[in-house]
Amino acid sequence: MKWSWLLRYVGLAALVPALLLVSSAGRSADERLVDRARKVFQPLPERVPSPENPLTPEKVALGRLLFFEPRVSVDGTVSCSRCHQPGLYSTDALPRPIGALHRANPRNAPVIFNAALQIAEHWRGDRESVEDQATQALVGPASFGNPSYEAAMARLAAIPGYRELFARAFPGPTDPVTPENWGKAIGAYERTLVTPSPFDRYLEGDEGALTAEAQAGLRAFMQLGCAGCHNGAGVGGGMFQKFGLVEDYWKETGSPTPDKGRFDVTHADADLYVFKVPILRNVARTPPYFHDGSVATLPEAVRIMAKVQLGQTLTDGQVRELVAFLDSLTGPLPESFATAVALPPAGFRP
Amino acid sequence: MKWSWLLRYVGLAALVPALLLVSSAGRSADERLVDRARKVFQPLPERVPSPENPLTPEKVALGRLLFFEPRVSVDGTVSCSRCHQPGLYSTDALPRPIGALHRANPRNAPVIFNAALQIAEHWRGDRESVEDQATQALVGPASFGNPSYEAAMARLAAIPGYRELFARAFPGPTDPVTPENWGKAIGAYERTLVTPSPFDRYLEGDEGALTAEAQAGLRAFMQLGCAGCHNGAGVGGGMFQKFGLVEDYWKETGSPTPDKGRFDVTHADADLYVFKVPILRNVARTPPYFHDGSVATLPEAVRIMAKVQLGQTLTDGQVRELVAFLDSLTGPLPESFATAVALPPAGFRP
């Protein structure tokens, strides 16, 4: 109606430059979008280096074996890959993982991919690094369930072949089969598990890598304020934040028991309901959502985040666009994670 | 000493033809070995066809996904791959697998590779085929643990994407998401998991594919009588046999509770302590050994088999040679088993 009115009064000849102006404004808006995005996000690095744990091929190769090794757990059923499965994008699809001796873990299994980018590991940030996480998992009652580090190392040393591989990965005069080196090897491997996606190609200048809907979602992601916390190369993972800034999260997630988050670690009032902001890389592949896996689908998770963090009620269109943007964060499974290597043969020792 | 004596009396000129004769006799003995072996064993086929379950690419691809799918189990922790792990050559290294709800299975996890070659599945042969095994696992209390097939199918149907894949694999007017089709898809996939090894190359005419020690082991394997049961393409899997033909097996294995084997299935006296003869393909990769995983190492398992089945006490040299032959039955991990594909994203529904 408006266009036909315009056409009638202005005429076709005058309209052409006006249309070009709109189109050009659209393009420059897109350019501004990618430029704005580059100030907030970065493409993934090829791997995540660590000054404390230099990545050597021997260490990475050993860590890759150990990641899939179940015989070091107390009942022989838990490897890192039990909760971080290749087919499920390094998660297990459970609200809360079940570990050794069928014990339930308190929180949803975080993704391994790109995890080394984060300020800390675990939902409450109570693991310093991927190395620290891997080491402590050996004695976590609901993860590997070993009664002590000594017990874990005895299981490891009983598998022929590992001692030699540890010696090569950690040369030196001291016994290399230690919980710290277990953590360093697995951590080194995890530091190679990065998952570049269409969003990285977009940030690197290929604007066609994102659909128009995904670009609209990216714009909304920044305008609404999501990117205030979910930013950087991980699209999250860089800070701690209260879950439920605007209203109590459990009213929307239906979580039966509110988790006090980082408060239970630091006992500081300011940390009540505070969690590490999760990285959103591959988020479309890793339902269920939130620290307790209380929400089944990504659209629902997006809607709840807008509500409880930003006080916004999203339209269906906004949710669709945001999900399209989040879809652009899905990369292929890293080859060294998707491809199994044979472990040294030996039976589990009960 | 003898040689120098011979040399002195016969002279070098006469010795040359004599040496050639010895060498030629050696070669012809080897030829006889491979010929004899070909009467007892066959190279692996490329896949194991089934008249009841024709192998289509759609079915095999679906079965590959389902094999690694944990969300169909009662607690979301058990996929086929929980007990048949890629890194452990389709076993789990446990004496007896732990399945859903941490329930212990009664017997050691059999290998999946080449399993479709067998007369029946499971240690007692109480699963007709790989298809039957996969279907029944859905409701096995210690495997997937579902209370009913309906419950299992409801879990499967709740994962978006599978209905479409089932429809493509099983075209027709009826609902394709059935326990039978679950079994057929997984069975079709398993029928592609064959693991050709140096022994197949040997049988096909490349005599250098087996070391001299492995050839000596092969000769002993046939002469001692092992091949009386462990024969065919699977080097086993073709018949039932009593474990402990000559003496009670548990006296050697140390098994705390004798398992009556097939007797508990058929209740026929002749089936007391009778088990399916396991295939020995990749046996060097799949400790611990026997139906109850009671023996940790392959040399020990070989020694016990000779004792309780054949009444023979092997020398260390014989054990080494037999193990060298068994080593030649190890093939590389099948690519479609070692390479993970992403499963349709959805959280487990408790």
Task: Describe it.
- Two copies of one chain form a homodimer.
- Chain A is mostly helical and 350 residues long.
- Chain A has 15 helices and two strands.
- Chain A has a two-stranded antiparallel ribbon.
- Chain A is globular.
- The model of chain A is unreliable at 1-26 (pLDDT under 50).
- Chains A and B meet through loops of A and loops of B.
In short:
The structure is a homodimer of 350-residue chains. The first copy, chain A, has helices spanning 2-10, 12-40, 57-67, 80-83, 130-137, 149-157, 162-169, 179-190, 198-203, 212-224, 250-253, 263-266, 298-310, 316-327, 335-338, and strands at 240-242, 274-276.
Topology:
Two copies of one chain form a homodimer.
Chain A: H1 2-10, H2 12-40, H3 57-67, H4 80-83, H5 130-137, H6 149-157, H7 162-169, H8 179-190, H9 198-203, H10 212-224, E1 240-242, H11 250-253, H12 263-266, E2 274-276, H13 298-310, H14 316-327, H15 335-338
Helix pairs in contact in A: 1-2, 3-7, 3-8, 5-8, 10-14, 13-14
Q: What is the makeup of the main sheet of chain A?
A: 2 strands, antiparallel
- Give the low-confidence spans of chain A: 1-26
Largest interface: pair, residues per side: A-B, 43 and 43 residues
| Radius of gyration over C-alpha positions of chain A, nearest whole angstrom | 24 Å
Calculate the mean pLDDT score of chain A and round it. Answer: 93
